[in-house]
Structures are given as structure tokens and as C-alpha cells.
Amino acid sequence: MNPEQITQQIQSLSKETGKFILDEWDKLSSEQVESKGLHDFVTYVDMQSEKKLVEGLKKILPEAGFIVEEETIRKEGNAYNWIVDPLDGTTNYIHGITPFAISIALSYNGRIILGVVYELGFDEMFYAWEGSPAYLNGERISVSQTPAIQESIIATGFPYNDFSRLQPYLESLEYFMRNSHGIRRFGSAATDLCYTACGRFEAFYEYSLKPWDVAAGSLIVKQAGGRVSDFAGGDKYLFNQEMVAANDRVFDPFLKDIQSYLQSA
Questions:
Q1: Are residues 11 and 134 in the same domain?
Q2: DSSP 3-state of 32
């Protein structure tokens, strides 16, 4: 398997699917938005995009299984699995705002070996594979060199239906409001991770995440020189529904701050 070649193929597939998503943006009506749960929305665009991505990915690596958000296919592979979010930021999309992104990762025996995130609003393609640098539209990227939380911009995502840790999360927000350059909430975890990878943000944290939200972005952060973990500092961030990501200089103190408010699930 050639991961660089596969990454290039995924970029082409993402561009093709992204054109469909953008073409449908102005056509979407409120009657076409369905609810999967409290504040958890899906549209025909999510479903159709996932089907397009699944069909394309089957051709790229036929032996791989799938872990996908909208469950248009249910087939986990023995070794290789595609982890796909066809439209990360659906709520942004249905309200006519950005960012929203396609996120595609490939895992091998549970380890992410390549990732592509295509943020459609700014036509930005972030990607990396195991052993490579991280890239944005063909140019190498790296995390920022900001040395302290007090000088950092921090990204996060607000819980939309899991309020089990809401109070300590709000307390953490207050702390970072008082002890950083500010907090941003863009509504797309995949984009937040890529912005951390290219140095726009110094750090990111969130709970109640799904594997397809973070699989590709987590690898891109690591290949850009950053670090990722769950709230305990371990490596269960894909399926433990929580993540911390940051540049290497602020990661340890940032994680310590998170742990003073939020315990690992």
C-alpha cells in the first residue's frame, strides 16, 4: 500500500464530493433537515455525501471496512477501516455559515495511518500520512511555537446533547477566558484540529466527541508536531469521546489545567 498515493486519491474524492455539498448549500430548506437526537441534525446532503465517499473509498482500498457517521454502510474490516464524517459541522451548514468539512481517516489495526480534512468554506485541504509532514494545500504546516497558555488561543466545542459534565466544563471555560488570549468555538472539531495543526490555535479540547470527528485531524496534528491525548493523558481519544490537542510547548500545562476540571470518562 502506498499511503501518499492513497492520500492523493482521497483528496480528489473529497474535492468531487465537496462540490456536491457546496452546490446543494443554497438549495437546502428547513423541511429537509431531520433530527437524530437532541440538537443532532442530518440532511440529505450528509447522506448523499457519505454514499459518494463510501463508493469512492471502496475503489481505493476494497478490503477496508467502514466506521461512518450516518451508517449508510455497516462493515468493519479486520485490519483496515475508513473512518468518515461526510459533513462535520452540519449545524453550521444548515444555518448558512462556515466552517464545515469532510473528514476521512484510514486506520490499520486501530492505528490511524492517514488523514484528510477538506474544509469547504475556505477550500482548504489538510492532510498527512504516517511518517509524513502535515500539509495544507500542498504546503507544509506545523503547530505554533507559542510557549504559554496565557499567550494562546484555545478552541473548544460546546456539548449539544451530553450535559453530564457541563458544570465542570463551564468552570474550565471561565478559567481559560481569564488565562489565555481567548476561546473560539467554530462548530467543527475536524476543523479545530487542523487549525491547531497549522498554528492558528495553540490548543483544543472537547468532550462528547465521536471517532469520525477527530480521527483524521488527530493524525494531522501529530504529523504537524503537536500532541493529542484523552483527558487522562492516554491514547483512548478515538473512542473515549474526549480529546486534548496542543502544540508541544503548551500541551503538558494545558492538559494539567483540563484535568483540574474534567476527569476522564
A1: yes
A2: helix
Question: 209 lies in which domain range?
Answer: 149-259
CATH number of the domain to which 196 belongs:
3.40.190.80
Q: How far is CA 35 from CA 44, 71, 91, in A?
A: 12, 15, 11
Question: 103, 124, 141: which is the final residue of a domain?
Answer: 141
Peptide bond preceding 99 in cis form (omega within 30 of 0): yes
- Pairing type for strands 153-156 and 203-207 reads parallel
Tens-digit pLDDT profile for residues 16-56: 999 999 998 877 654 555 554 443 446 788 889 999 999 99
Give how far the C-alpha of residue 33 lies from the chain's centroid of Cα atoms, to the nearest Å: 22
Strands (E), 65-185: 65-68, 80-88, 101-108, 111-119, 124-129, 134-136, 139-141, 153-156, 182-184
Q: Report the predicted TM-score, pTM, of the whole model to 2 decimal places.
A: 0.93
Q: Which of 192, 194, 236 is nearest to 211 (CA)?
A: 236
Q: Are residues 135 and 159 in the same domain?
A: no
